[in-house]
């Protein structure tokens, strides 16, 4: 019995392959004779295997959680841009309709100003159409990407997404300028009320 206790103390070292050559031979000789120690070693091997498997599962779970968190951040960023592109597409469409309606009306402008006005309208109308087309291409690409679940199954046109973002930026700048102009006009009107 005393020998079994010594062997059981050596079995973990034997399983980890860190015991001396003499200890290894002693354990193997004893295991050949003692069924209780063989049973103990099998139980210990089973426990060690379960612990190793649990560690691997924990590592896989942590890796999956980390990948999921990174993916959610990426999706969150993309969804904001996607919504902005949809709003921008609608704004561009409304601007195109407005420009067409204004062009259909007869404009009575005399002299050199008429040429500048028409050139400005054509120039801005061209930009609005270009932005609208790029927004539409970007939205179709994003729709296809979601449908196919991969980005490389069709030819991408990244320049269109860049133009869509530029279009959003232009609209933000224009809105900022309009707000500033409204504030300046409002303050000048407000200041005029109190002047003598």
From TrEMBL:
Question: Which InterPro entries does its entry note?
Answer: Anti_sigma_zinc_sf, Znf_put
The chain's coiled-coil residues are: 27-61
- Putative zinc-finger domain mapped to chain residues: 4-38
Sorted alphabetically, the keyword list is:
Coiled coil, Membrane, Transmembrane, Transmembrane helix
Which segments cross the bilayer?
Answer: 80-102, 114-140, 172-194
- Can you tell me which family this protein belongs to? Belongs to the zinc-associated anti-sigma factor (ZAS) superfamily. Anti-sigma-W factor family.
What's the protein here called? Anti-sigma-W factor RsiW
| Native species | Dorea longicatena
Give the source lineage, highest ranks first.
Answer: Bacteria, Bacillati, Bacillota, Clostridia, Lachnospirales
């Amino acid at each position: 019995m005393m020998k079994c206790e010594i062997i059981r103390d050596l079995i973990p070292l034997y399983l980890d392959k860190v015991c001396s050559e003499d200890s290894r031979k002693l354990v193997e000789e004893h295991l050949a004779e003692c069924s209780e120690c063989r049973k103990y070693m099998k139980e210990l091997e089973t426990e060690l295997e379960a612990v190793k498997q649990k560690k691997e599962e924990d590592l896989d779970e942590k890796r999956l959680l980390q990948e999921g968190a990174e993916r959610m951040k990426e999706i969150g960023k993309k969804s904001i841009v996607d919504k902005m592109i949809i709003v921008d597409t609608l704004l561009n469409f409304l601007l195109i309709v407005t420009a067409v309606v204004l062009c259909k009306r007869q404009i009575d402008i005399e002299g050199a100003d008429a040429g500048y006005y028409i050139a400005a309208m054509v120039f801005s109308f061209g930009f609005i159409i270009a932005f609208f087309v790029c927004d539409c291409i970007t939205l179709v690409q994003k729709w296809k990407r979601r449908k196919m679940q991969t980005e490389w199954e069709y030819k991408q046109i990244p320049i269109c997404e860049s133009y869509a973002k530029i279009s959003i930026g232009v609209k933000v700048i224009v809105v900022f300028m309009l707000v500033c102009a409204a504030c300046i006009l409002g303050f000048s009107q407000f200041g005029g009320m109190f002047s003598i």
